[in-house]
């Protein structure tokens, strides 16, 4: 199974840190955020990894190269100056991702989820999402998990972790351009084509300087 790291966001909430550095290259405990993803993916058996980028994307390619020193084969999906959002970014990268289901990880999260178990996951629908407890800054959550299926609404929603498996067919009828992944997932949920699981381990949305500092503290305490 191939994997993709979404790394094209502008990082507006991280400014001024991201004025000259793309968010994936910001550091916590001396290492770039995206390097934690690469290490976790390779350890889990994912070695063919696609990274999309837009703002200051050349810095990402220069920093990571072909991935050899991480034990990975990296390919890049360059989106130019204007990021294509989650859906548009994945859609543009489909020729690199192949025809089989693939794993996608948001570049601006940190999580100790055991990714190896997703490499052998049998996808029964169009998507499989990992959901976590709602953080204080996102208390209403995203989706409802009922046993093994995910729905748009329910009695108690959880937060989408930014870790998911997708089948290329999820993007059927899409056109190139800038669009979100969420409407595609919601449509698939209505057809009961989205499964999910709850993860109770450590997870952090590293979206602001304060939460970057929180990650620094978390890693220092390990």
UniProtKB/TrEMBL annotation:
The keyword DNA damage does not apply. Keywords: Nucleotidyltransferase, Transferase. Coiled coil: none annotated. Residues 3-125 form the Nucleotidyl transferase domain. One of its GO terms (molecular function) is nucleotidyltransferase activity. Signal peptide: none annotated. This is Mannose-1-phosphate guanylyltransferase. It comes from Thioploca ingrica.
């Amino acid at each position: 199974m191939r994997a993709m790291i979404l790394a094209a966001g502008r990082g507006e909430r991280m400014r001024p840190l991201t004025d000259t550095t793309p968010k994936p290259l910001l550091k916590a405990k001396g290492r770039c955020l995206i390097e934690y993803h690469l290490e976790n993916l390779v350890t889990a058996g994912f070695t063919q990894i696609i990274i999309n980028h837009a703002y200051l994307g050349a810095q990402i390619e220069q920093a990571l190269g072909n991935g050899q020193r991480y034990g990975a084969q990296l390919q890049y999906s360059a989106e130019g100056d204007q990021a294509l959002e989650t859906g548009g970014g994945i859609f543009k990268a489909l020729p690199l991702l192949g025809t089989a289901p693939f794993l996608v990880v948001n570049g601006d999260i940190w999580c100790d989820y055991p990714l190896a178990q997703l490499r052998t996951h049998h996808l029964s629908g169009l998507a499989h999402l990992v959901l976590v407890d709602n953080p204080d800054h996102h208390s209403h959550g995203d989706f409802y998990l009922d046993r093994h299926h995910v729905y748009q609404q329910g009695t108690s929603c959880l937060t989408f972790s930014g870790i998911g498996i997708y089948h290329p067919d999820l993007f059927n009828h899409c056109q190139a351009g800038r669009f979100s992944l969420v409407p595609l997932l919601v449509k698939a949920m209505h057809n009961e084509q989205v499964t999910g699981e709850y993860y109770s381990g450590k997870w952090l949305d590293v979206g602001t300087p304060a939460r970057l500092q929180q990650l620094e503290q978390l890693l220092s305490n390990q």
